[in-house]
Amino acid sequence: MPDDLAELLHELKHELILATRILANQNVLDAFGHVSVRHPRDPKRYFIPRHRAPELAEIADIVELDLDSEPVRPTQFRLYSERVIHGEIYKARPDINAVCHHHSHAVLPFCISGRELVPVFHLGAVIGHVPFWDQREEFDDTNMLVVSPEEGASLARALGANAMVLMRRHGATVVGTNVRELTFCTVFSCDNAALQSPAMVHGHVDRLSPGEIERAAAHSARPPSTNRAWDYWVRHVEKGRLDAGAHRVKAEDREKEQDAETALAASLRELLTDSEICVIHGAARQSNKRTLSVLPRRRLKTTRTAVADH
């Protein structure tokens, strides 16, 4: 990693934005949910985008917060009301440097039913043991959002030393030692849930053994594995951006073409006689051309006689 702090922070923020785009592209994040990363030189601070849909976040939207989830510097940005999830986990887990909170539809059936989420394939081993947190048990009826430091600390206690915690009737929170590991675990935990749900319909769910979980998780957590997946997901994000750009360019080209046709037609209206315009309309219809079709058709009735006279 670069030694210069400014360059280091720029790369870290860029990776944070990429993670939000990846998780949105993988249908983990939608209009809601958020991702954060701890400051690499000051463990008592972290970075998180301002309050907006994750896929729309830019580097300029990132704010720096302390572990009480308050801005380090004054900001005009509106902040996520559930940012205490991140701050309280960073307080409780010094080993954790990245956090994601989401409401993926793949995990929600487990949050609703209380059915245990277990590793069912090798890449899902990264979830390990997945505990539950029920906000209602400690805080009675709420609006379901984790907005107070006490609620955030309670969630962090339920997470414990694990990589993921399911939040009853709400969603999930996932942690990692870095952004790429977090992204890997978040995506494949959702994939694991998406596989386990239909497997339960079939009957028996053959979960991984404790030894398989330990060995497969250790293998997946290595940089060669997380970087390979990261590069793949980044390519899909870039492809989506290129596709969107291509559609935008095509739309702009069509608009320019239409503007040119309109300008040409306006020029011809000034230069041509009514009878000449009528002849051009007839030729345009026969050749199926639309270039001059914007010429005024209201003159056709009078110009037909003029043409016949010629």
Low-confidence stretches: 289-310
Distance between the termini: 83 Å
CATH homologous superfamily annotation of the largest domain: Class II aldolase/adducin N-terminal domain
Tally of separate helices = 10
Outline:
By secondary structure, the protein is an alpha+beta fold. Helices cover 52% and strands 10% of the residues.
Distinctive features:
single chain, about 300 residues, alpha+beta, L-fuculose-1-phosphate Aldolase, seven-stranded mixed beta sheet, about 50% helix, elongated, disordered C terminus
Task: Explain this structure.
It is a single chain. The chain has 310 residues and is α+β, with helices and mostly antiparallel strands. The chain folds into two domains: 5-240, L-fuculose-1-phosphate Aldolase (3-Layer(aba) Sandwich), CATH 3.40.225.10; 252-309, no CATH class. The chain has ten helices and seven strands. It has a seven-stranded mixed β-sheet, with helices on both faces. Helix 2 (84-92) crosses helix 5 (149-159). The relative contact order is 0.10.
